[in-house]
Amino acid sequence: MSTEVVNEIKEQEYFINMGPQHPSTHGVLRLLLSLDGEIIKNVEPHLGYIHRSIEKMCEKDTYKMIVHLTDRMDYLSCHMNNEAVCLAVEKGIELEVSDRVKVIRTIMSELTRLSSHQLWWGVMGMDLGAITSFLYGFRDREMIIDIFEETCGARLTMNYNVPGGVMFDIPNNFQKRVKEFIIYFKKKLPEYDDLLSNNVIFKARTEGVGILSKEDAISYGVTGPSGRASGFSCDIRKQHPYSAYDRVDFKEILYSEGDCFARYKARIDEMWESMFIIEQLIDNIPEGSARETTRAVIKLPKGEFYQKVETARGEFGVYIISDGKKSPYRLKFRSPGFSTLNALNTMAKGSKIADLVAIMSTIDLVIPDIDR
Amino acid sequence: MKFDIYDFSVLTKSIHESLNSMMGETAVMISEMVIVGIIFLTLFAVLGLILVYVERKICAFFQQRLGPMRVGFWGTAQTLADLIKLLLKEPLITKNADKFLFNLAPFVLIIASFMAMAAIPFAKGLHAFDIDIGVFYITAISSIGVVGVLLAGWASNNKYSLIGAMRSGAQIISYELSVGLSLLTIIVLTGSLQFSEIIESQREGWWIFRGHIPALIAFIIFLIASTAETNRGPFDLAEAESELTAGFHTEYSGMKFAFFFLAEFINMFIVAAIGATVFLGGWMPLHFGALESFNAIMDFIPPIFWFFGKTAFIIFLMMWFKWTFPRLRIDQLLTLEWKYLLPINLINILVMAFFVLMGWYF
Hints:
The complex is a heterodimer.
Chain A: H1 3-11, E1 14-18, E2 30-36, E3 39-46, H2 54-58, H3 63-70, H4 78-92, H5 99-127, H6 132-152, E4 161-162, E5 165-166, H7 174-197, H8 200-206, H9 214-220, H10 224-228, H11 236-239, H12 260-282, E6 303-311, E7 314-322, E8 330-334, H13 336-342, H14 344-348, H15 353-362, H16 367-370
Antiparallel strand pairs in A: 1-2, 2-3, 4-5, 6-7, 7-8
Chain B: H1 8-22, H2 25-62, H3 78-88, H4 99-118, H5 134-142, H6 145-155, H7 159-190, H8 195-200, H9 207-210, H10 212-229, H11 241-244, H12 254-279, H13 292-300, H14 303-322, H15 330-358
């Protein structure tokens, strides 16, 4: 081949459509990759495959109905999403929920976080080719899901929160089962380290891969464990405590490396912290009513209300503009996944296809959360 | 026909003689080839079915689940049911695919593994093709398989397939070196490339015990390299499903996909069988020098069980790798081969040659 032809071929981009149907995009995310051999030159995420216009739907619904829609966004941290809306609405109607509700919400939030991280851990291993971890993650998650089922009847999209409290009081053996789970999972979590964290291949695949600097994390708004792995202190539970987080003692997990392994370790450590939080609260659930009576159709006063919570993926915000009617004038969700996805190109540029998969799984994307 | 489970040459000789008494020389040769061919085809299918079942069960037990349980006792007929399903599936061909090469690719792969199987000694006297350069023959034939993978990736008209095929090409060509060199380390000891002689030389003890540390190193390198050569996890980059959906066989369906699937398992059997033959004494029973009664008990177990037992052990090791380790990245894979395994291997051969020269082996 003449050099001209070779140059022409070199100038042509080698495009690959990763998704919408692809095993490691965890949903219907479409990534347009331009490649140079195995090396990624550019990543362009394309959204819109499961857009349900949830924000627009919220403008038609009453505040009690909005809570149900938030489950369908980040389904793995549904409880925290519910909580954010409920807290915002409670702020609007100036309703102070009982301590019992606060503690129950906090425990359920941390259980949801644990179950989300367990699923993430399993999928992370599977993305890197260690399929066994997937089953381990699901095995342990099953116990939490069973607790959820007993508590509120649902296993995934729970809808346990309502404005004014929680739907039902906790069942009698809730505390017993949660304590059993904590004892069980404290034994099982070191297994996670044995299988993946201490594995040579796993370390080689994640250490130094997909580095996100602290500056980039802040400017892109990468929050949650992904942001904290870059050294960005952004734990809402610490900085703007809500529910019962002001009365528990826990560490904010911070790493400075910002690579895949740091993001991985941040989540593993967060599981320990979550268990620590639950342990502090589970024996001290105060007496009181589990649900304050509210009006059948809540009307928020005219104004703007914002509430943010820490979900398993980062900062989830609910911004309500009310004009005093039964449904909001405009409602905006700040989803953690959307901001994190924006940083994908910065992280993945120059790495290999296999690295992209590792990066994708360590930033823990849930596509319905990004694409509302 | 006389039958002796300890020495199959009695059986084969009697078949040969009875055929000779019936027909001419050419007819005997042809009919013997047909018989051997049919036996191998059957073995091929049966091994495939058993290995798929075993893989699924072992994988299930590693993952704390039961695996297939519904079809047949403990799911034993599950793979058969899957085979029927695959047979009935429509063979799809992608638009603008190179139809001839697309259809050819699975056959290249399966023929390569079929030919390699011929040189494997199953038991005493049960050896289809005892060529005097057996080890060389097998390493040569098994490298034809990569052509099938490359063809499949190229002809599919799919970018994922092409990436998978290129990965596979780079991987198999690199790791072939390590497989060859680790086998050579033992060839230095035996002084012969013929499988029957390699086994015969291990009558006193298996080379992995007698060859000191170099033999052990060679065995470990052989295990790693042969796992890589058969495209199995943690080296399954060619079909890495989380990256390339299914790599080079993304576009294949039905029976053609089954051929790729079967070839993977048969290749695993072949490398395990070579490993068992060269390092673990093939069908030779386990002997310890002075323990006469122990040796007698070991001799009582027929050689064919010894062979399949050792092969099964190596296959189990390879499955263990697959269901435990994460997958390597392509550059790490090549680094492992060219920067670590190959230099270690070369030094290992020199050390082994020195040992042999000084007579420092048992």
